[in-house]
Amino acid sequence: MAKAFRARHRAASVLLLPNVWDALSARLFAAAGFEALATTSGGVAWALGYPDGEVAPWDEVLAATARIVRVARVPVTADIESGYGATPAELGAHVAAVIEAGVVGINLEDGLHGAIRPVEEAVSRLRAAREAAHRSGVPIVINARCDVYHLPEGAEDWRFAETVGRCKAYAEAGADCVYPFGLRDPATIARLVKAVDLPVNITGRPGMPDAAAFERMGVARITIASAPTLATMAAIQKIATEFHARRGFDHLASPIRHPDAQQLFSTKG
Prior knowledge:
Layout: H1 2-8, E1 15-17, E2 19-20, H2 23-31, E3 37-39, H3 41-48, H4 58-72, E4 76-79, H5 88-100, E5 105-109, E6 111-112, E7 115-116, H6 119-136, E8 141-146, H7 156-172, E9 177-180, H8 186-196, E10 201-203, H9 211-217, E11 221-223, H10 227-246, H11 258-264
Parallel strand pairs: 1-11, 2-3, 3-4, 4-5, 5-8, 8-9, 10-11
Antiparallel strand pairs: 6-7
Helix pairs in contact: 2-4, 5-6, 7-8
């Protein structure tokens, strides 16, 4: 499965990876026909009762990821933020653990609490992740997230050059795909794809071109981060507000019924 997932990043068509946060969201997206899933660190953390940003205990994140893998029935890549480890060795242990949970890919950030790691430090952590994967015998896809465009400052020329330089360094350290988080401008994305000569992951946001447009640019994969989690939270918030205000039940009508939900988790077929 990991080998097939890796090969998929070099296919002509763009890989659409919806981000899930629990077993139910994983089953719903898989049932819709998506060939693979990604987790969202924010969604997982909120579902566990913690803020995003490596605040949720690692053991709880690992258990949540294992549940998602168990029900997904398609390849899953996990967002483990910056690795939940102060040292490369700790990061490597966590990568080994999440591979044991069944994932075939990980996201690994170079950002850290609003800042960005020196490139040498980010490279050493990527190498530790690749070495852990090699020892496990599972050729996971390492998606190296570069947070330069997520920073609030920096001239455009510097941002682009810094991102290209980091992406190339991350590729040499063992990354299979690069993720310029925060980059939304289509023209800049197209330039970056040509400059790094490596599969590029972008985040789809409202107002951006559709997947077909990015496929023509050569983008390898598109994720949607915490957007599905937030949309679901908004729907629940609306139900809660209307239930409290109206004290009625008509707004609880749903096209999904109990048997439909049961079927999603059926062990038959």
